Amino acid sequence: MIMNEDILNKYAVLKQILTDAGRVAVAFSGGVDSVLLLKTAHDVLGDEALAFTAVSPAFPRWEREEAVEFCRSEGIRQILIESHEMDAEGYRENPKNRCYLCKHALFSSLKEAAAEHGCAYLADGTNADDSGDYRPGMKALAEMGIRSPLKEAGLTKQEIRQLHRMLGLPFAEKPSYACLATRFCYGQTITAEKLSMVEQAEDVLRGLGIEQERVRIHQEEAGDLARIEVLPQDFARILENRELIAQRFKEIGFIYTSLDVTGYRTGSMNEGLTRAERESWR
Which residues of the chain does CATH 3.30.300 include? Predict the structure, then answer.
């Protein structure tokens, strides 16, 4: 495929950044961004590029399995790290800076593991588009000295997907995902059981062929409510399967199930934040 010269220049910058690093630990989730980062690091550094993947109730098992399979197929050494962000003080109470607490705990574990494997350079998949919305986790990464080579090279999400296609990577069209804790309203308690409920519910929707979905959990006195977010073009599929969805969600533990007619959007749990709160992470 014909590539825009600007994208190719940015890709060359990315490769140079990684080459200069010498030995790199990549925080590898299996998402579109981290796949490109890890693949490029391995291309330029070979065995000096390692993948570090967190194991946690907050990260879907299916995505971890995809990450493991990718590393196996590419011959990349992968280290699975038990992540304990749920033990971080305040995390379970889900305050508005939960993402900060999570990233700080998660990357503390990754940094320690990376150092044990001789990697002073720990990189994550933040890209040039990740400066919007409410992202206190990025403040934690900056404070901890975590590098973001994709962002440093100026690569946007769209450009990253184009590079996936150029390199023949399998995830060019993979939807964006986020940790399961983002499905909770601020101030509502996060537990491993509730995270599992969300994961199972989203598995039901993916089993119906819906690729871009979120199941937001609202903990009410009368019982847990699941608020389904999908793209508007998938509304009909939800309604066609509403009885199945309602039954399966009740089996999982949800008392009520609703369809959000606004549709899927990232960061919907941030919609109630004030402008000052949104800008407080910067």
Answer: 180-265
Q: In the Cβ-directed half-sphere of 200, how many Cα atoms lie within 13 Å? A: 15
- Considering just the CA atoms, what is the radius of gyration of the chain in Å? 19
CB 227 within 8 A of CB 215: yes
Among residues 213, 222, 219, 258, the alpha carbon closest in space to that of 239 is found at 258
Q: What CATH architecture does domain 180-265 belong to?
A: 2-Layer Sandwich (3.30)
Q: What is the rounded CA–CA span in Å between residue 212 and residue 227?
A: 14
Fold of 5-167: Rossmann fold (3.40.50)
Question: How far apart (Å, rounded) are the C-alpha atoms in residues 148 and 122?
Answer: 9
SS3 assignment, position 257: strand
Q: Which two tokens stand for residue 98?
A: 């939960």
Backbone angles phi, psi at 155, to 5 degrees: -80, 130
Q: Are strands 49-55 and 24-27 parallel, antiparallel or unpaired?
A: parallel
pLDDT of residue 269: 63
CATH 3.40.50.620 intervals, the chain: 5-167
Lowest mean pLDDT among 73-77, 93-97, 193-197: 93-97
Query: Which of the two residues, 138 and 218, has the higher pLDDT score?
Result: 218
pLDDT tens-digit series, residues 57-79 = 999 999 999 999 999 999 999 99
